[in-house]
Amino acid sequence: MEPWRGNFGRKVSDLARELPLVARKRPNASNPQSRILDGLNPAQRTAVTTPAEILQILAPPGSGKTRTLTSRVAYLLSEPNCLNPENVIVATFTVKAANEMKQRLAALVGAGVERRLLLGTFHSIARRYLIKYGYLIGLSSSWGIADAADTKAICQRIIKRRGLKDTIDPRTLQSRISHFKARNLTPQANASPVCHSTQPSTQQTKKQEKNLANEDFIMLYEDYHESLDASNLLDYDDLLLRCLEMIKQHPQCVSNVEAVLIDEFQDTNIVQYELMRKFAWKAKRITIVGDPDQSIYGFRAAEIGNLRRMRAFYSDTLVVNLEENYRSSASILTAALEVIKQDAGRHDKPLTPTHAIGPSPVLRRVPTPALEASWIVGEIRRLRATTAGVIQLNGIAILVRSSPLTRNIETALAREGVSYKMVGGTRFFDRAEVKIVLDYLRVLQNPANNDALMRVVNVPSRKIGDVTLKALLEEAEKKKRTLWDLMCKGVRGDVSWGVKIGKQAETGLGAFTALMLSIMGKLDEQSQDSNLAQIVETLLAKLNYGNFLQRTYPEDFEGRWANVQEVISQAREIVVENDEEYLPEIEGLQQQNSPQTPRLALERFLANAALVNERRQEEQDGGEGLEWPVVFIPAVYEGSIPHSRAEDTDEERRLLYVAMTRAQGLLYMSCPYRSGTTDKTKLSTFVNNPLVERLLSKKASDLPFTAVQTLAHILSAKCPSEREIEASIEKSGIVSRHDDQITDKDPVEEEAKRKAELEIKNHGGGQRQNHYDGPVKFQSARNLNVNSMTTEERMRQKLTTAEKIGFRSANNHLSELKKIGLGDVTCEADGREKEKRQIHNSMMGTNKSVTTAPNDLTTFTTAMITKKTTRKVSAGGQKAPTGSVGQGTLTTFFKKKPPPEPKKQPTATEVVKKLRTSTMTLKEQMDSLPIPLIPKRAAGDFILLSSSPPRPKLAKKQRVGTNKNEIPIQKESVVVNMKSNIAVDNSLRPKVPVFPNSPEFQDFCELIDQSNNPNTAAETIAPEIEMEDADEICLPPLAAEPSVSVVTETASSVGSLKASHAGGISLRGRGTTKRTLGIRRSMNGWQNRGGIRGSK
Fold first, then answer.
1. Angle at the Cα of 417 (from 415 to 418), degrees rounded to 5?
2. 72 has a pLDDT exceeding 90
3. What is the DSSP letter of 933?
4. Beta strands 54-58 and 233-234: pairing type?
5. Helices 270-279 and 236-249: angle between axes, nearest 10 degrees
6. Confidence of residue 91 (pLDDT cuts 50, 70, 90)
7. Helices 330-340 & 649-660 angle (0-180, nearest 10)
8. How many Cβ atoms sit within 10 Å of the Cβ of residue 31?
9. Are 350 and 58 in contact (CB under 8 A)?
10. Residue 1034's pLDDT is what?
């Protein structure tokens, strides 16, 4: 469909809206595609059902890429597409991923369709085409695959033959040869002394390798391939190169291909990218799944630029982003994203967690690598105890950057009795007892394999020395023969050995050739009773291999013999009747087929062993597609990650990102302060970043019950009860349930700090000398005695600071000197400073600016402000120097000034006078009055000061106000101003409504002012309140928030405020008359406030 072309960059939500309705609605049981689409999120469903022919699915970690790719394959095989499975190529990067995809496809489509697909790794697919069509490019039959041991042995021989042993080592030569072949380059035109990475390097590393001339490398490159051709072998790179060469010359070999789907596309190299294009040259239907953030195989020529190269070549590429993570907790995912975002050249992609936050990732500092290993093992024990079975041992992974880091960890695990499995160590087919059996089988399948023959001809011992074998191999190469051919003809006497051969050696060679020839005869038999497993058992029996292993490895014989039995078991699984190398017939093109004999089974078995061994290393290196509930990443420091020999720092960052995103619930990173006894480490720049550090915890979580619940939910496990957790902790015998057993401080630095503090304590607290003797050494501010410094030291110290900060005025300078506590000390400067000060003071009275010349200490520039100055007469009758107000000599400036007078609290009368305005309401005026002060008396009683005017003792129960519009009040009640502590007697209260802006209110205030006259102090003494007067005189109680009455404009009188009859406080004064103290003036206690009428 043409509308789907040119959709690069569109959002998934936009694409989903454009899909047909049948693709967007949720599948149901009646829909035949329900099993394929059920459970997919919108982005995944778009990627599966899109009719786009060129599709890129960018899948971050944990986003369900394998399920999406599998569903895409099943969708293409089912209606309405109905592609033929035999015409669909699905390329993966690991055998594990291929097997997992086969299982999922069997569940989705069934009927054995997955077995008809061309599904496997790039190398296995290329081998299948070479088996069928390799004759078209001149490949002979029965060719084999050279493993790493074969290529290393070849490199050793050709380096020695050319006399370049001191110039280059075999491993470096292997890497350089692979560098050219993975990019489909030839050294004649592109040879380089150093093998550079294809990606921009951001880290400069020193390579410890000798320079090799281009001409020498060209000769070694040619010798290498001549040796492979003589042994009838193809290395791993040759499988891809020769397949690409075949398709370029004979494109009709893949003309039947209808679709190509590739997993982990970010790890493809140039040759694999070209193979993808050639596979799909006719149908042009390609789907790839990848993530540029997980490209970690640059050292193996992986090209992260293939994603961009593909979009440029296919302009109609549709890109779908999977944005939901179903693996890690939100805290782990957030921290990992902050790490990968540091890559400036990265294309930012959204990634949303679907799990809860969970415990924060940990970045733990430990003193040494040995204590780091102890902390890891201790944390494993604590985790298992505090989770009560939620975390199992097989759910914990320790990911290391390089194998030497495992030594301390293995020691700590063994010491604590924690069982573990080492992954990434010696591979199964590289074990000594297994390797010997495979080499025998490889000689049986391809006798021209000189290197395999050299390794087994004297195992078990046949009295053939290494010197004899090397001489025979050199003689065979000189005569352009294979070593096997020379042995057979030499034993029969057809040709001379060409070298000196002892009697015992010749007898041993004869026994070996007779054994191998007898077994080879059985490989070509088509009897049903003869199969590969029986041939292997016969071979081992004639070799008496069991006794050989028991004599050679008596300590672990049983384990090694079990590995040999595993080889026999795998050989038994090879069935020649099932053509695993089947390819559909193409009209006009003949395929090369082999008879169904044990030899065919042996070829398949050896090919599977070689390919599994080669690809398994990548599974162990990066861990892509793997996940564990708990992940430990030790040695997160510079030199480890990023590695000291790494050429591309961005790839090292991606490697850490991949390792972090393997964790589901808990992530632990650790870094020792010292890599050895003295070498101090530097924390990795990838995590030594404020944006990352804020997301990491310095110590492991205590894992409370809520954290265990979150972990159980993330892992879809049953959550234990709190009682079960406590029982598990008690049974485990752990010392503490907290991460507190190993310090997170550097012992070396802590010891140095302790010694420094002790030295300061012993020598830094004495009396300092009062003279200047050179530059002042560093001294702690804690022991600095300012008063013991001389004036010269103070001036030099302050003026040095002034030089650093620039210009300062003299007034500012003196203010800072006073702040440091000089007190009344007289400043005794030298003659030059004194002269400058006199000039400055004399110019102060002239309203001009004076600038003194700079001296060796500082430059003073004083700007005079035009202002009228005054002259004051001193005590001696002389006039003081004229100057600005507030300035004088240093002595005057430094003298202590009297403390400022306390601010006088305004009286209520003063406040009321200032508030005579018509713009304020009664409530606003009340709120603006001051709060009464309550001083405390010595006896512990409290007394309130009042500015109320004096009043005579009130008559008992005298009622006033007969107007019905006026609210009756008790004669003894007091009208209280809530804010000003003024209690007003009713006898002074006006009988008509009084407003704040009325003349009556002003007269009322003047009456209060008269009561404050000191001359009438004797008259202001109010009668003392006795307890028995409580019924006669009732004061309102104190309250924090008074009520407010609102008076309308039409009111005929002011609402009276009735005081409550609560009890008062009995206080006795010096006189005999009773006195009103104004104790209760709050309005909260008004009992009759409901009687006040008014509306707003």
1. 110
2. yes
3. P
4. unpaired
5. 40
6. very high
7. 180
8. 14
9. no
10. 41
Six-digit token pair at 796? 């030099």
Structure tokens at 658: 């991949």
CB 369 within 8 A of CB 689: no
What does DSSP assign to residue 547? H
Residue 258 has pLDDT above 80, yes or no: yes
639 secondary structure, DSSP code: B
In the chain, what is the straight-line distance between the N-terminal and C-terminal CA atoms, in Å? 76
Q: CA–CA distance from 997 to each of 377, 918, 993, 1003 (Å)?
A: 85, 6, 12, 11
Calpha distance 377→968 (Å, rounded):
88
DSSP state string for 291-353: -GGG---GGGT--TTHHHHHHHH-TT-EEEE--EESSS-HHHHHHHHHHHTT-TTPPP---EE
455-480 average pLDDT score: 90
Do residues 400 and 406 make contact, with C-beta atoms less than 8 angstroms apart?
Answer: yes
Q: Can you tell me the mean pLDDT for 194-199?
A: 41
Which residues lie closer than 8 Å to 370 by C-beta, 6 or more apart?
Answer: 408, 412
> DSSP letters along 857-889, please?
S---EE-PPP------B-TTSPBPPP--TT---
DSSP conformational letter for 976: E
Between these two residues, 972 and 65, which has the higher pLDDT value? 65
Yes or no: say if 266 and 650 are a contact pair by the CB < 8 Å rule: no
* Structure tokens belonging to residue 340: 């990968």
- What Cα–Cα distance (Å) separates residue 786 from each residue in 762, 764, 857? 20, 14, 21
Helix locations, 590-677, DSSP H: 598-622, 649-660
pLDDT at 196: 40
Identify whether the C-beta of residue 234 lies closer than 8 Å to the C-beta of residue 140: no
Q: Give the pLDDT score at 388.
A: 92
Query: What local confidence, expressed as pLDDT, does residue 829 receive?
Result: 47
Q: How many C-beta atoms lie closer than 10 Å to residue 180's C-beta?
A: 21
**Residue count (the chain):** 1096
- Higher pLDDT pick, 252 / 22: 252
**What pLDDT sits at residue 817?**
65
Is the distance from CB of 779 to CB of 793 less than 8 angstroms? no
Q: Judge if the upstream peptide bond of residue 350 is cis by omega within 30 degrees of 0.
A: no
- Please answer whether residues 314 and 53 qualify as being in contact, where contact means their C-beta atoms are separated by less than 8 angstroms: no
Predicted confidence (pLDDT) per residue in 588-602, tens digit: 888 888 788 888 889
The 3-state DSSP class for residue 834 equals helix
d(CA 678, CA 185): 46
Angle in degrees, 0-180, between the axes of helices 270-279 and 306-313, rounded to the nearest 10: 30
In this prediction, residue 995 carries a pLDDT of 57
Strand partners, 89: 118, 260
Q: Measured between alpha carbons, how far is 656 from 101 in angstroms, rounded to an integer?
A: 27
What CA–CA distance (Å, rounded) separates 368 from 372? 6
H, E, C per residue of 79-107:
CCCCCCHHHEEEEECCHHHHHHHHHHHHH
pLDDT at residue 604 greater than cutoff 90? no
C-alpha distances in Å from residue 128, one per residue of 89, 170, 217, 240, 265: 12, 30, 32, 11, 21
Write down the pLDDT at residue 630. 96
- In this structure, what are the phi and psi dihedrals at residue 54, rounded to the nearest 5 degrees? -110, 115
Cα separation, 199 vs 304, in Å, equals: 8
Q: Do 159 and 221 form a contact (C-beta atoms < 8 A)?
A: no
Q: State phi, psi for 879 to the nearest 5 degrees.
A: -80, 140
Q: By mean pLDDT, which of 168-177, 256-265, 778-787 is the weakest?
A: 778-787
Tokens of 11: 């959002």
* pTM flag (> 0.70): no
What radius of gyration, in Å, describes the C-alpha atoms of the chain? 48
Token pair belonging to 978: 């809530």
Structure tokens at 916: 């005579």
> What is the amino acid identity at position 837?
R
Q: What is the pLDDT of residue 347?
A: 82
Residues 6+ apart with CB under 8 A from 225: none
Residue 453, pLDDT score: 93
